[in-house]
Each structure stands twice: as C-alpha cells, then as structure tokens.
Design brief:
The protein is an alpha/beta fold and 431 residues long. The protein has helices at 7-22, 44-57, 73-82, 94-102, 123-128, 152-157, 170-181, 197-204, 221-235, 248-256, 270-276, 278-282, 313-323, 326-336, 343-355, 361-376, 390-405, 411-429; strands spanning 32-37, 63-68, 89-92, 130-131, 135-136, 139-145, 147-151, 262-265, 284-287, 297-305, 339-340, 380-381.
Length: 431
C-alpha cells in the first residue's frame, strides 16, 4: 500500500463533503435532473414514454434525463458536485452509493418516503439499500442473478449428468472436465477491479468478511478453507491461467469458443451467445447458480439515490418511486431482460413468463433462463455488504489470493496478510 487512504478516496471524500456543504445548489428550479447508467439509446423509447407520463402528472417539474457510460459516472458525478450541478436522482450501484453516503453526500430518504413504501419491494434488496449510519440511502431498481450456463456437450464428454450446485462439488467437476475434454470447468476472476463473484463465493462458503467494527473477520477457519480451495484449484491446473490477469469478459469468450463447461452469468447474456456462437448456444442449458450449503444465491442490484445537493428532495423521491413502481418496473424488466425489485412487478413477470409461448428454440431458451432467474430470487440476497471501502476490501483480498494461487506465498499466509492490510486501512478510516 502507498498509504492508509488513496488519493482517489481523498478526492471522493472532499467532493462528497463539498456536496453536503453546497446544500441546495443543484439543478434549475423548474426541472429535475435524472442520471442513469448505460441505458441509452436502447431504452430511449421507454424513457420517452415514462417522462411523458411524468410531465402529465407534474407539468410544473419536468425531468431532464442524462445517460452516462458505466466507467464515467463517478468522475462526472464528482465534477458535478464541484460545479454545484449534481443531479436530483442518480442511478448508482450499492458500493459507490455507500461510499458517497459515508461522506454525507446522499440524502437519508427515510423522512421523505410515504408510509408503507418498503413493503412494495423485495425485503432483501430494500435492506441492501440501507446504511447502518446514513439511513435509507437509495431505492432499489432492477436486479440480475447469476445462473450456471452449461455446455451440455462438454458434460456428456466428461460423463457428467449435471453441473455442480454447491461449491464443494466444484473440484471433482473441474477435474473431470479437464481430464476428459481438455477444457476447463469454470472461470472465476481474481482481477481486483473486476467481478465480485470470488468475494461472494467466500461468503457462500461461510466466511464472515467484517465484524461490527469493520475489522477483518475473514482470517478464520472458514476463510482459511476458502483460500485453500481456490489456491488448490489454480495450482492443480483446474482453472484457466487467465483468472489472475483477465476479468469476467474472458469467461464469456471461453464459453463462446467451447472451451469452458460452465459460465456463471445472467440470463440477459444468452442472446449474445446465440448471436456470437450459435453452435455453442444450441448445446447450452441454464441451471441454478453455484451456492454454499444453505443454497443462498447472490443478487446484483442497481439503485436510485438522491444527492443532498438536490433542490427538490421530496420530488426527487417521488420520481424514484415512479420509476420503480410495479407497472414501470414490469415493462423495463421485460424489455431489458432483467428482474424487478418491486414485489408486484416480479409476480407480473413470473406470470407472463409462465404463460409465454415461444416461437423458436432460441426464445424458449431465454424464457427458461429468465423464469429460472425469477424463481431464484426467493433464495437470493446481496451477499457482499455495500459498505464504504468494500472495493478496497476486494482489491486487498484478491491481490493476496493471487499471490497464493501463483505460489508466491502459502494460502494461510496470504489470508493473514490480507486481514492485516485491511485492518490497517480500517483503523485509519474508522478509528
């Protein structure tokens, strides 16, 4: 480490504090500003319809919609804070929302929400939008869950009837695939700034990441078993060598080339596989995701938050509730092939999928995957808490796990070093 707190985090803290101090400096008095992430131009018609309805209901306060690329939202939001032009409603993932809230940058929505608002949403994702110190920092929007997309041909070549359902069955599965087909069973990246799937797998294996004081709790018997699990898989050649250098995109590439038996990804990626690798898509089956002993799956969540700089916090909350109501979420879930956080919308999606009559094998495959995803939500939650610094924790854990996998140090030593490094960071941030 270069120091207990990175330059980027110092800038984030300074900007967020500036955001809180700016008070009511945000958008023009006669409009609301809404920022979303990478939804244009595909969903332009959807938002045009929604915002037309909003204008009919609230003509005095129209909405200006801005869509941003995934990689630029943090930079542009911080720049808007300095310029006192922060949006009224912003689409954030939970880790960035938690980090911003910890600096006083987001409104606690609790006093602004109508009675019974929480009951409209799935309880697990509503809780994931609540910070123990900052309050209800966001409203849940759309969700995705991982499935196991399985190459049936490779399973048959390996003499396997089905993919593994639990992590403890993975080593034998990976070994059979490798020895009998020359391919790999699965791909889970340990690139620090990529997917959180590895961190989620630790939780599913019974690892408690942090204690109540945000100190490391993962240097435990469960943590040692989990680190050895991944270290042994890699050292035995049962994971692609690239898991230490390439991200989750590489898993899709390997799956599409027929070199991977199981891809842990969402139903929404099936259409890409059908387009890019129709031969592989034809032998692909969706299965439930890998989990731990209790069967809990992970859900990935996108939220809507209200910066404290908003001049119209009550109206901003009303807009967020409008965007996430049952009717609007059901339509968005259908068009985007994601899942809604609204309980009523989820029932609508499930009913529609049950009744759907696909015209082609490709449509039937997508329907099966989406229906499976919707059912999995009953056993899913956000496994990695959206706490400030959680991306730093991921970087620390992944970096030390990489070292163990590459044989530079033993896995128990790597885990202890990760815990020590996190605790030094944690003490500097939360004395």
């Amino acid at each position: 480490m270069n120091g207990p707190v990175t330059r980027r985090e110092l800038l984030l803290g300074a900007a967020a504090l500036g955001l809180a101090a700016c008070g009511r400096g945000g958008s023009r008095a006669d409009e609301l500003n809404l920022w979303t992430l990478q939804l244009a131009p595909k969903f332009n018609p959807y938002f045009a319809d929604l915002l037309t309805v909003w204008r009919q209901r609230r003509p005095q306060l129209p909405v200006r919609w801005t869509d941003l690329p995934w990689g630029s939202v943090e930079r542009k939001l911080l720049a808007a804070v300095y310029a006192r032009t922060a949006p009224d409603v912003v689409n954030l993932n939970p880790p960035f929302a938690a980090n911003l809230a910890s600096k006083g940058g987001l409104s606690d929505l609790t006093p602004l929400l109508p009675s019974g608002a929480a009951e409209r949403y799935l309880p697990s994702v509503w809780r994931a939008c609540r910070d123990p110190e900052a309050g209800q920092i966001a409203i849940p929007w759309y969700l995705t869950v991982r499935l196991s997309l399985v190459n049936r041909r490779l399973l048959e070549e390996a003499g396997l009837e089905s993919p593994p359902r639990r992590w403890d069955a993975v080593p034998e599965f990976a070994r059979r695939i490798r020895e009998r087909t020359g391919r790999y069973g699965l791909f889970v990246t340990v690139v620090p700034d990529d997917s959180a799937e590895m961190l989620e797998s630790l939780v599913q294996m019974g690892v408690v990441l942090l204690d109540g004081q945000r100190r490391a709790a993962f240097n435990s018997p469960a943590g040692r078993r989990a680190f050895r699990f991944w270290t042994d898989l890699y050292r035995q050649g049962l994971l692609p060598r690239e898991v230490v250098s390439q991200g989750q995109r590489r898993a899709i590439e390997l799956f599409q080339s027929g070199d991977l038996a199981l891809a842990a990804t969402g139903a929404e990626f099936l259409r890409s596989i059908q387009t890019n690798a129709p031969g592989v898509a034809a032998v692909t089956e969706p299965h439930p995701p890998l989990t731990g002993e209790d069967g809990t799956a992970n859900v990935a969540l996108m939220t809507l938050a209200v910066p404290r700089q908003s001049r119209h916090p009550a109206e901003a909350v009303a807009l967020a509730l409008f965007l996430t109501d049952a009717a609007n979420q059901a339509r968005f879930a259908r068009e985007a092939r994601v899942l809604p956080s609204s309980q009523e919308a989820l029932e609508q999606v499930r009913t529609a999928l049950d009744q759907e009559q696909p015209d082609t094998a490709e449509q039937a495959q997508i329907r099966t995957a989406r229906l499976l995803s919707a059912r999995i939500l009953d056993q899913a939650r956000v496994l990695v808490p959206a706490l400030p610094g959680i991306k730093r924790l991921q970087k620390i854990v992944y970096t030390q796990l990489q070292r163990a996998m590459l044989g530079q140090i033993e896995s128990d030593v790597a885990l202890a070093m990760a815990a020590d490094e996190w605790d030094r960071y944690s003490r500097s941030r939360w004395p």
